[in-house]
Amino acid sequence: MVAAREKSDKQPAMMIGLGLDNKDGHKRVTKGDNFCLLGGSEETHERMIETSVKVNEKLAKKGKHLSEVSKEEFTDIVREASS
Questions:
Q1: Cα radius of gyration rounded to whole Å, the chain
Q2: In the chain, which end has fewer C-beta atoms inside a 10 angstrom radius, N or C?
Q3: Residue 77 · residue 58 · CB < 8 Å
Q4: Kind of pairing, strands 35-39 and 15-19?
Q5: In 1-83, which ranges are E strands?
Q6: Residue 74: exposed, middle, or buried by beta-carbon count in 10 A (0-12, 13-18, 19+)?
Q7: If you write DSSP's letter for every residue of 50-62 in order, what string do you get?
Q8: pLDDT, tens only, 20-59
Q9: Residues 6+ apart with CB under 8 A from 80
Q10: Counting Cβ atoms within 10 Å, is residue 11 exposed (0-12), middle (13-18) or buried (19+)?
Q11: Is the model's pTM score more than 0.85?
Q12: Which of 20, 19, 48, 55 has the alpha carbon at shortest distance from 34?
C-alpha cells in the first residue's frame, strides 16, 4: 500500500489567460510570475497583463503566493485587480 501524499504539500499554481477576440492575425504570448497569457486583441492582451500584474502585487502585499489562497480569496483579488 502506498501512503497518501501529505495535504500540506503546496501544488504549483498559475493563472492562464486566453483572449479570443483577435482579428489582426498577431500571436500574442506573455509569461510572467504565476501567469501565462495567450491571444486576444492588443487591447484585451494588455488588460490581461495589467490584471495579472495587479494580482501578483496584491498577493505580495498580503505576503502570500498564488498557491496559498483559496478560490474565494483569489476571486476577490481578481475582482479588485480588474476594476
A1: 16
A2: N
A3: yes
A4: parallel
A5: 15-19, 29-32, 35-39
A6: middle
A7: HHHHHHHHHHHHH
A8: 999 999 999 999 989 999 999 999 999 999 999 999 999 9
A9: 54, 58
A10: exposed
A11: no
A12: 55
Distance CA 20, CA 8 (A): 36
Q: Give the Å distances, CA to CA, from 39 to 6, 10, 43, 82.
A: 37, 29, 11, 18
Please tell me the chain's helix, strand, coil percentages from 3-state DSSP, rounded to the nearest 5: 40, 15, 40
The amino acid occupying position 45 is H
